[in-house]
Structures are given as structure tokens and as C-alpha cells.
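Data card: per-record layout.
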Amino acid sequence: MTARGAGLLVGKVALVVGASRGIGAGIALAMADAGAQVVLAARDQAALALRVEEITRRGGQAVAFPVDVLDEDSVKGLLAEVRRRFGRLDAAVNNAAGGGRPPALLADWSSAEFDSAVAVDLRGVFLCLKYELELMLSDGEDGGGGSGGAIVNMSSTAGEQGVSGLSGYVAGKYGVGGLTRVAALDYAGAGIRVNAIAPGPILTDRLAAAGLGAQKMAAAAVPLGRLGQVQDVAAAAVWLCSEESGFVTGTVMPVDGGRLAGVPAFNIKPNQGAPDPN
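The structure for this 278-residue chain is written out next.
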């Protein structure tokens, strides 16, 4: 059986920021399976080494560089390393997230907690976009770059629909959607496409650790009746970075099993009529 996305990124250089675990690690693996040379970046170098080993074992090509998206010099240095190593960047996925605090009413958030959430979820994406775009736009003395590219930012359904208790996270993810649309408009003329993905409940390590009860509760809120898998998000990222989506830019794509479609009015099955309102 052919893997999803097989061959879609052959000959491409792809960067995944936040690739040490979870969705980011899954995206890096899927991009390598699709034929890309993948650069993995995150703070946890030990975890990155394991991801590179896994990709190599499967016959893929990958290298890892450390990065802290809170530090502009670190992000700038990462893209300098990509340029030095490969001379160009064809695709990038910005998946780093974190900061903030556990859910709480807005007035119970401190300004420092809010700033922490927005710094990672929004400012970190801005910094990655800034230096990724610069490399994609650059002609370079070695002839690399300057030939367009594709960038995918990781948002959330919480960036399209408010979630009580998550002030900083929601604000940051809404901002990611806005940055994505602005970047898409700014650089469409240069052949660079910028999109975002808004995952719904995905069975990551964190949700797995929360236990079966939490997983059933999350799945119950999904119209398709199940949790998403990391591979579902990874397949969307590969497609958005490939020529298969060459006419798609400036969009936030839900990968959410239908959660953002709305709230079903009645518990009915296909080909059944709606209940008589009388």
C-alpha cells in the first residue's frame, strides 16, 4: 500500500519547527516519506535525535537543529543553517506552541501568563515566517531560493471558535489565522503560498495520557465520532506543501472531524426525516 503523500515532495527541502514530538514529529515523518529532505527543529535536541533516527531508519533524509522560537537570534540562526546546508527552502511548517497556563477565567490570568502564551503561539510564528520568507525570497549567491515555496502555520479550532478558559491560547491562535492571511496576500506575487491548519481533538501523547474517559469525552464532540490521528494532520500538511495544492493560499484548513461545521440540530441518521416539530 502506498503511503499517503508518497512522492509529493521529492526533491524539496522542508523545515518543521516544533518537530520533537506529537503533531510536529508526525509531520516531519510524513514529509520524509513524501520524499523531502527534512530539517527538524525544536528545543529538545535529544528528542530530535530520536526523530531523525526514525526517519533515517525508514529510508528518509533528515537533519536536526536546535531552535527557541522565543529568541529571534535563535530563529534567525536556524534559517541561516538551512541556507548554509541546503541553499534554499521549499516548504516549512510552524508547529511550535505552548506557554500560558491551565484553563482559567480571563480575569484570573496574569498579564505574564497571557504574554507567555502569545509569545510562543503568535510571536514565535511571526519570527519563523519572517526568516523563512526571507530565505524563500532570496536569490542567493549559490543560486538557491527565489523560486516560491509553501508555508503552513499550525493553528487550532480554538483559533476559529472561542474556548472558555483559554484566553491567551485562543488570542494567539486567532492571531495565527490573521498572520497567515496577511502573509499569503503579501507574497502571492512571489509564488509563495501560506496556509494554516486548525486541528480538532487529536490523539497526541497528552490526550493519551489523560486517559480513556477524557478521550471518549473529546470524541463525543466530534461529528465523525472519533478522535483525529496525528497522521490526519500530517497528511494535510504534506498536501498543502505540495504542488497538488498549488491554487490554495490564505486559508485556514480545519482537520477536525466536522467540529467547526456547526452543531447538529437533531440526532438523526442519513435518509431519516427530521422529527416533527409539532
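Known properties of this structure: Residues 13-202+233-260 form a domain with the Rossmann fold fold (CATH 3.40.50.720). The chain has one domain: 13-202+233-260.

See the next section for split statistics.
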